Amino acid sequence: MTSWAVDLADVGAVYPFQGTEFILYIAGLVFWIWWHVAQIRAESREVRYEIGADTTGEATRRAIAAY
Questions:
Q1: Tell me: the pLDDT tens digits for 3-36?
Q2: Residue ranges per domain, the chain?
Q3: CA-to-CA distance for 33 and 26, rounded, in angstroms?
Q4: How does pLDDT run across 33-44, given as a tens digit for each residue?
Q5: pTM surpassing 0.90?
Q6: How many whole angstroms separate alpha carbon 32 and alpha carbon 34?
């Protein structure tokens, strides 16, 4: 290459995996949505467990009073 002032269409691929941007975007979007759904489910399960473990609130009151 003798000059940097060339038409990039004539040079060829400028970066790897050229043409897969939309597929990678869709894959990232699906992963992002899946991650949030998984987090919401896990946190809901944890909250239900914690609520079920202390239905009267006595254990919480004792812990607060102790410290």
A1: 788 887 777 777 888 889 999 999 999 999 999 9
A2: 23-66
A3: 11
A4: 999 999 999 999
A5: no
A6: 5
